[in-house]
Write a structure and sequence with these properties.
Distance between the termini: 31 Å
Structural class: alpha/beta
Protein name: NAD(P)H-dependent oxidoreductase
CATH topology: Rossmann fold
Radius of gyration: 16 Å
Strand order of the largest sheet: 2-1-3-4-5
CATH architecture: 3-Layer(aba) Sandwich
Bound molecules: flavin mononucleotide
Strand content: 15-25%
Shape: globular
Pfam family, one: FMN_red
Number of strands: 5
Order of helices and strands: EHEHEHHEHEH
Organism: Streptomyces fuscus
Number of domains: 1
InterPro entries: Flavoprotein-like_sf, FMN_Rdtase-like_dom, ISF_SsuE-like
Helix content: 25-40%
Keywords: Flavoprotein, FMN
């Protein structure tokens, strides 16, 4: 299967540090790897409504939900590019993941089987100089990948407060060059050791 990367941008502003860092990493992908970029501030998802147990719950085809659904099932690699907000994912990025819960229960979709073995990655900008404060976000993505039977490539972290700051984080720019070449083992929950 040709690799196809879906970049889901979850910042609440455009041209922010998270996107800049994600684009630096994406520049290194080989030309035959397809890329699709969806900015959730331009293609917003409506509030997630929990219809998992309603029988008339159907595969989404319309609007931004349909767009995100189609893009997700078409991707071999999903990159959640979310700034660190309150030590975790931004609300738009979190809402996108909430939709996965609905898709898991959508009749005829078999979302879990479709996504199993594919790879989840994260890219995050944060203003704190202590990277470990991003552990809740990293844990949320790792555990989500483990739940889905997906691979997890880890999270590329970059420092910055105002847009453009991350371009001064030389360590992050160096890590961006090889980030997507990194290993992405099958994700495991921490209790699995
Ligand atoms: C709502 C909000 C919450 C934030 N929470 C954190 C935080 O918990 N830790 C941190 O280091 N930075 C925090 N920041 C700073 C952002 O992570 C930082 O400005 C980052 O560069 C934003 O990414 P962006 O440029 O891609 O939008 C927060 C910013 C906002 C707007």
């Amino acid at each position: 299967m040709t690799r196809r990367f879906l970049f889901v941008l979850g910042s609440s502003r455009s041209d922010g540090n998270t996107e800049l860092l994600a684009r630096r990493a994406a520049e290194q992908l080989p030309e035959d790897v397809e890329q699709q970029w969806i900015d959730l501030s331009e293609q917003p998802l409506p509030d997630f409504e929990d219809l998992r147990h309603d029988s008339d719950h159907v595969r989404p085809t319309e609007g931004n939900v349909g767009l995100l659904f189609d893009a997700t099932v078409a991707a071999t690699d999903i990159v959640i590019a979310s700034p660190l907000y309150w030590y975790t994912l931004s609300a738009p990025a979190k809402r996108y993941l909430d939709y996965w819960s609905g898709w898991l229960r959508t009749p005829g979709v078999d979302f879990k089987k479709t996504m199993a073995g594919r790879t989840l990655w994260g890219v995050t900008a944060l203003s704190d100089h202590e990277p470990s404060v991003a552990d809740p976000l990293i844990g949320a993505l790792n555990n989500s990948a483990a739940y889905m039977g997906m691979r997890f490539g880890g999270v590329l972290l970059g420092n910055g407060s105002k847009p453009g700051d991350v371009l001064n984080d030389t360590g992050a720019l160096t890590r961006a060059k090889t980030f997507f070449q990194g290993e992405a083992p099958l994700a495991r929950f921490p209790f699995e050791g």
